[in-house]
Amino acid sequence: AEREMKQGFKFSPDNSLQLMFEEEFPYTPTSDQLLAVKQIKEEMETSHPMDRLLCGDVGYGKTEVAIRAAFKAIADGKQVAILVPTTILAQQHFETIRERFQDYPVSIGLLNRFRTRKQQTETLKELKAGTVDVVVGTHRLLSKDVQYRDLGLLIVDEEQRFGVTHKEKIKQLKANIDVLTLTA
Asked: Is the pLDDT score of 78 beyond 90?
């Protein structure tokens, strides 16, 4: 109810760069993927914070739907955080996103326990300065030292695998930003 009353960021309609990015998807999207993308974008283009749950079996393209939403946020100068429950999943998402954005000027960061302290410190500094567009990470993203210049979209994968403490921190983080939750 609180989120419904808050003012969020109203994202711009798709531009030609967004359409070009989506056409570069190496697979044919399903009708369900296209419908989900359409609905998510419509909701992102309203002035209320989005709170969307995307359900689908493993391997049915939830990540691509999320990446298209992330691109939309980045195109409007907002940062995107992708929160996942495991280090392995963080690495998988990081690789997928890096591959998908390789032809675009998008900076991608990774925060998990496999990153050295120096790498994490550098990513945190870049997040705060706004030079990292997308950050993928585990519960490390919920730490007090993580600060964003202009977070616009939070993507949470497998929220059911986070504990009560983490869910409370997620709730604080998503006060007035768009949120897309992915689950199988």
From this structure: yes
